[in-house]
Design brief:
705 residues, alpha+beta, Arc Repressor Mutant, subunit A, OB fold (Dihydrolipoamide Acetyltransferase, E2P), five-stranded mixed β-barrel, globular
Length: 705
């Protein structure tokens, strides 16, 4: 059989890439050349054709049906791939995965007759682009050091003995696939980086950052550019053309540990009644210029990433903690939103100005709360002497704004955020629910108002912009919420198909203080559309606002920095047409990048939090706690403790006779009549805590079985 015939026969059996054919029929330069010559002849004679670098027999028609995809999930005996346009996914049975790994770009052919009617199933024909770097855990299995990927823990791959890199059993490691087999288990890998024991949350978090390509260190060019801002002060030249607000008693309010302070406030009572509220934001755009290395890096990062007691900043510390931070008693450049409100708290006018400010005091939430409540000691009162007379007016204005917010039906969810308490070694020793007082709510409302003004400014001026958009919930999510509310015995009859925020707020208010409060709050949060950034104004459903953007945090969010730049240009006299030409494409790219990076940052923060919660739970194995049933599945129930730690109770721990799932909110034991429903309280024992996976397992406490 000629080489041409052999190649044709091989392609008939299985679509092939050039590398596959060279591996099978080549071997050296001369043989590889002959393979390419034969392949060229087959293509020229229309015997074979190609798609995305994969060769098919022309008469088979498979090329037309092949779909470019990306592997998004891998299990022991299956994979899921996402279509290139992200319009849907396809299930791949294990024997048709061709050794593909998560992140690989692949070519897929759908089955004409899937095993499950109506589903999309298929076969991976070829791996087009390999993603060979992964993060996971080194495990000693049957005497060999193997690698278990975080993305697919049901699979293990052998680490080559000469490429173990000093890794030990239980280490978090990054690896590179050195040799691929036809099955995932046949791949051979080498260790490229060690992070330390998978039994430490901080090591798992570092590995997670690496896996998601989040760099804690800035590139050299960025560091070099940032050096010129070290120990920088505001010069007289910087102050030219700015409104001098140094006479205003401006101050900041943040948590005690905050070092990157990007917002400050001031409030003046007006003689005719009403208020002038000033929200003063660090003028980051004055220092971070278009085309600079700093700007390119800020765009790529798009947001600071926070987890535990760590932050991966969007900007280097010489800016974020230095010249851009509104530090106490230091002259700073700001972008101020000066708002006029009537005596009932209604916004009547606003203007944006480039300003010079000097914060009188670094306020702390807990101290401000004490001052507002009248419980502050003399030392605290002395600290705030320069701004103390503003606080009663701020409290008064916030009360008006809170009333207006409630009247328009703004949905106020319980955040469920926790504070992780770490020891000197970075180990989690406690978990507490975050609580917020009046000052936190007050600052949030004042920032929200400035954000609203920025979006209104852009929409009226009809300039390109980056808006914060929150659309109404879709039908599928609303149906799930309906089922949940019905199961909880809550009447959810709405005037229209899509409920108004006010109607949803009324439901939340109705369950406040009941066992269903937490469950309904969570269910309603899950039914909400994901807020994102877009270049067109679409309003904000949850806040019940026509105009909304992010203006107040340019140190840690790129959208805020982007709109500062646009607004600065307009205020300096740039005409609308030039603005459209200059910023239309930029606004679209900044919106897309910022939305994607925000989603990634949230995923990292949540996963890292799971590691630390599991580390905390590990310290309390065998101990009993009361919790609330927060989720119900056929496999068992999820229970959340008072401090926010959640664990899973398998159905086998509940009863030995089997359970029945009812309406997605209740498990019942037909034999005993026992039930476990959403919102019920129960006593549990912590029995397992896997820090590496960020999972905690509970069992029913012995005395309550």
């Amino acid at each position: 059989m000629s080489l041409r015939d052999k190649i044709e026969h091989a392609i008939q059996n299985q679509p092939c890439m050039v590398k596959d054919l060279k591996a099978k029929f080549g071997g050296d330069r001369a043989a590889d050349r002959k393979v390419m010559e034969a392949l060229d002849e087959l293509v020229h004679d229309a015997v074979v054709c190609q798609k995305s670098g994969v060769f098919f027999t022309a008469r088979s028609g498979r090329a037309e049906k092949a779909l470019p995809c990306k592997v998004v999930k891998l299990g022991k005996n299956f994979a899921f791939v996402m279509l290139e346009d992200e319009s849907g996914d396809i299930f791949i049975p294990g024997r048709f995965t061709r050794g593909a790994m998560p992140g690989d770009s692949v070519l897929v052919e759908k089955f004409a007759h899937p095993r499950v009617e109506g589903s999309d199933e298929g076969e991976i024909l070829a791996v087009l682009e390999q993603k060979n770097d992964m993060v996971g855990t080194a495990r000693r299995i049957e005497g060999r050091l193997k690698f278990v990927p975080d993305d697919c823990p049901a699979i293990s791959m052998t680490i080559q003995r000469d490429c173990e890199g000093g890794a030990k059993d239980g280490d978090k490691v990054a690896v590179e696939i050195l040799q691929r087999g036809t099955r995932q288990e046949d791949h051979r890998v080498g260790v490229s980086m060690r992070f330390g024991s998978c039994e430490e949350a901080k090591r798992c978090a570092k590995a997670l950052l690496y896996a998601k390509d989040i760099h804690t260190r800035f590139p050299e060019k960025v560091r070099d550019e940032a050096k010129k801002f070290e120990d920088m002060t505001v010069s007289e030249e910087d102050c030219k053309g700015r409104m001098d607000l140094r006479a205003l008693p401006i101050f900041t309010i943040d948590s005690a540990e905050t070092k990157d302070i990007d917002d400050a406030i001031s409030l003046t009572r007006l003689s005719g009644g009403g208020y002038e509220l000033g929200v003063h934001i660090a003028d980051v755009s004055h220092y971070v210029k278009p085309g600079s290395e700093l700007n390119e890096e800020a765009f790529n990062r798009a947001t600071s990433v926070y987890y535990a007691d760590q932050v991966v900043p969007m900007l280097p510390k010489s800016l974020s903690n230095g010249i851009c931070s509104l530090n106490e008693k230091e002259l700073r450049l700001a972008f101020s939103c000066l708002m006029r409100l009537d005596q009932d708290g209604n916004l009547t006018d606003y203007k944006f100005v480039k300003s010079i400010i000097c914060s009188r005091v670094k306020g702390v939430y807990s101290e401000i709360n004490a001052l507002l409540a009248g419980t502050a000691d003399a030392e605290t009162q002395a600290k705030y002497a320069e701004v103390l007379d503003q606080l009663p007016a701020m409290k008064e204005l916030y009360a008006h704004r809170a009333r207006l917010r409630k009247e328009r039906g703004c949905i106020d969810f319980e955040s469920g955020e926790v504070k992780l308490i770490l020891d000197e070694n970075g180990h989690c020793i406690d978990v507490k629910k975050r609580t917020s007082g009046e000052s936190e709510a007050m600052i949030e409302e004042f920032m929200l108002l400035a954000n609203q003004c920025a979006a209104h400014f852009a929409r009226v001026k009809q300039i390109p912009f980056v808006y914060r958009v929150h659309e109404e919930p879709n039908g599928e999510k609303l149906e799930r919420l309906h089922s949940l509310l019905q199961a909880c015995g809550i009447n959810d009859h709405f005037a229209k198909e899509v409920p108004t925020p006010k109607e949803l707020s009324a439901i939340l208010e109705g369950v406040r203080g009941t066992p269903f409060e937490q469950i309904v709050n969570t269910g309603m949060l899950r039914c909400m559309s994901k807020a994102c950034y877009e270049e067109k104004p679409k309003g904000h459903y949850g806040l019940v606002l026509k105009d909304y953007a992010h203006f107040t945090s340019p140190i840690r969010r790129y959208p805020d920095l982007a709109i500062h730049r646009m607004m600065t240009d307009l205020l300096s006299g740039t005409d609308k047409e030039t603005m459209i030409v200059r910023y239309t494409d930029f606004a679209e790219k900044a919106s897309k990048q910022s939305s994607e990076r925000e989603v990634l940052a949230v995923q990292i923060e949540r996963k890292a939090e799971d590691y630390y919660k599991a580390e905390y739970a590990r310290r309390h194995l065998g101990e009993c706690y009361e919790g609330i049933i927060s989720g119900v599945t056929q496999r068992g129930i999820f229970v959340e403790l008072e401090n926010g730690v959640e664990g899973f109770v398998p159905a086998s721990s509940l009863t030995a006779t089997g359970t029945t799932l009812t309406e997605g909110i209740r498990l019942s034991d037909p034999a005993s009549g026992k039930t476990w429903s959403l919102g019920d309280s129960m006593m549990i024992t912590i029995v397992r805590a896997d820090i590496n996976l960020g999972k905690v397992d509970f069992e029913v406490a012995p005395e309550t079985k």
